[in-house]
């Protein structure tokens, strides 16, 4: 079966209100997901270990076919994931398996794969700290407040910090400063395996890119990369604004306190 036929079959599956599942499936078919193996190929400093079984590296084949977690889910969904007995590339193995399923099983496979990827990204793996960063910017006074929240794999808040900045050019720079603050704060607390998340896609892309940055935040991007050198593992991920809401709420509270605090003096 060709991949174009597989795309048609996936899109024809009756999941009327779950377009995101089909889009996620397209990314899984083409291995366009940020598994640790893919992150390593992009020369990012991550530990390539499956977050579910911790026995093998996290490739798309292992995560969606060979891992015990994927097989347990498939058994409960009413189908079994066959092993790859011959050296067949991932998308063609998936195309062959998907075409062999009945309509109901095809729906369950799409939902199962979406659940696996959603669960994998819901929380950081054990011993990894998730650091959300954000900033509040006051354009008229060129002031910014950066906020960092560190949580463990269970979602428990481990630490939080707020840092004021003055003479900040724009909101874009304030976001970059918040990202840098997240790395510095995590290192000061002794965390060595971290996942940094923020809702500025441009900054996440610049930090993950190996090409020399020439934008206004180039010095900050350089400092961020230098600060990560002594960490065991670090990854930078984009989080939509709604996913970053906790950080935003705390930012608003802190900003109000800062504005009401008469003892806060700005440097000249």
Question: How would you describe the overall organization of this protein?
Answer:
This protein has helices at residues 3-12, 19-29, 36-41, 60-66, 68-77, 90-99, 103-122, 171-188, 201-208, 218-227, 245-260, and strands at residues 129-138, 143-151, 157-166, 193-198, 233-238. α4 crosses α5. It is an alpha/beta fold. The chain has a five-stranded mixed β-sheet, sandwiched between helices. It has two domains: 3-122, no CATH class; 129-260, Ribonuclease H-like superfamily/Ribonuclease H (Nucleotidyltransferase, domain 5, 2-Layer Sandwich), CATH 3.30.420.10.
Under CATH at level 1, the class of the largest domain stands as Alpha Beta
**Strand line-up across the major sheet:** 3-2-1-4-5
**Structural class computed from helices and strand pairing:** alpha/beta
Rg calculated over all Cα atoms: 22 Å
InterPro entries: RNase_H-like_dom_plant, RNase_H-like_EbsB-rel, RNaseH_domain, RNaseH_sf, RVT-Znf
Pfam family, one: RVT_3
Organism: Hibiscus sabdariffa (roselle)
Protein name: Reverse transcriptase
Key features?
2 domains; 268 residues; Nucleotidyltransferase, domain 5; alpha/beta; 11 helices; five-stranded mixed β-sheet; disordered C terminus; single chain; elongated
Task: Describe the structure concisely for a colleague.
With 268 residues, the protein is α/β, with parallel strands linked by helices. The protein has helices spanning 3-12, 19-29, 36-41, 60-66, 68-77, 90-99, 103-122, 171-188, 201-208, 218-227, 245-260; strands spanning 129-138, 143-151, 157-166, 193-198, 233-238. The protein is built from eleven helices and five strands, in the order αααααααβββαβααβα.
